[in-house]
Amino acid sequence: MEFEDTAPLAPEAPESESRRRFVAGAGAVAVAAALGAPSLAGAAPSSPLGAGRSTLRVGMLLPQGRAYPLLGAQLMAGAQAFAQQQTAGPRLHFTPVAYGSHSSQAQRAAQELLATGQVDVLAGFVDAGAQAAPWEPLLERYQVPLLVGDTGANALSPQARSPWVVHNSLAYWQAAWATGRWAAKALGPRAIVAVGPADSGFDHLPAFERGLASAGGRVQNTVFTRAADGASQLEELALLVRQTRPDFVFALDSGARADAFQQFWAGSDAARHVPLVAGGMLGETMAAAALQQPAQGPLIWATRPWQPRLSDTALASALGTRSPTPFHVLGHEMAQRLHAAALSRPRGLQLAQAMEAAVLQTPRGEVRLDTASGETVVSAYLHGLHLGQTGSAVALPSVHAGSCQGLCEILGSRIAGTYLAT
User: Fold this and answer.
1) C-beta separation of 58 from 144 below 8 A
2) Do β-strands 276-279 and 248-252 pair in parallel, antiparallel, or remain unpaired?
3) Contact 74, 331 (CB under 8 A)
4) How far apart, in whole angstroms, are the C-alpha atoms of residue 209 and residue 195?
5) Which of 207, 213, 373, 376 can bridge 177 by disulfide, Cβ–Cβ 3.0-4.6 Å?
């Protein structure tokens, strides 16, 4: 495995935007090394997919978001952990570039990378779920496909389909839909939804609501965790829970707000009366907290994209961290998809087709891509976080394009931008 982190992308002025982005990308990778990943230094290959053991040159587009500033570094560290373990098949040579936080910035960074002629494939945490149109002409011009890795908070719209763009996600919206069906049957039909402003515009919220309704449940109230001015509304949530006594609370939040929610719920009277089901990044925050102190009182469940202790061994050891984050897992999986696709040395559109066709055995089980919808097909798990149940898990069925009762058509990227990247 080789990495490039010493040269600018193009011969521009020393303080150009491209140079700053490249240096920021190298800095993100340095953070990954600080997290326990092996060294990223290395020389660029002299030729792509050459004689002997071939090399696949990957341009990695990494976000610089405020909510999760280490997202790009962890994505890169996960990809590196997979590539370091490969002693056969194609080498993966990564050129990491931190692009900022907006889709237009990702596209400009991609264009500059492609103009160098030094990449065979683009990969990264970018927004191509609502419209593939801004990406397709660029990719077709250079005959280079794009592998998008993201959380899957939005369903893919028909406009997102392109033969040049392949999506490999954590399948958050499918997990939310399956969680809704499970909760209506296991906990009861009446739910209160608590949602953070940053999570409310994405499809994993209506996916939960429709999954709940498909099993006979209903959302009786929806509460925002923060007001428009940023003030906390968690006390209002607790009061509503005490007054109405729903069968459970379903919560979505991210970033610092997820930390605040976890701390609030741990000390709230409401937590002693009503079960909580945490989805998305809030589920990750609650699960991490339970490692230190399992919850007391009623049940707390967290939806996560893998089974407990399934990925927390070999992957954790390779990363040098106690518990991999979702971004570690996603980066690891993206590198695995790239490696599997490159085994037969395809280029251009054939490489995109090979990425889409690959069926992976990953730290979260079998992962494949639905050929009809382009969605990631994988099981998610509900983890028990309450005292005496920590480590228990319920497998949720994977959601296929034909089994979501029209959900795939109803949903479809209702908000512009990449979830968690801004």
Assistant:
1) no
2) parallel
3) yes
4) 12
5) 207
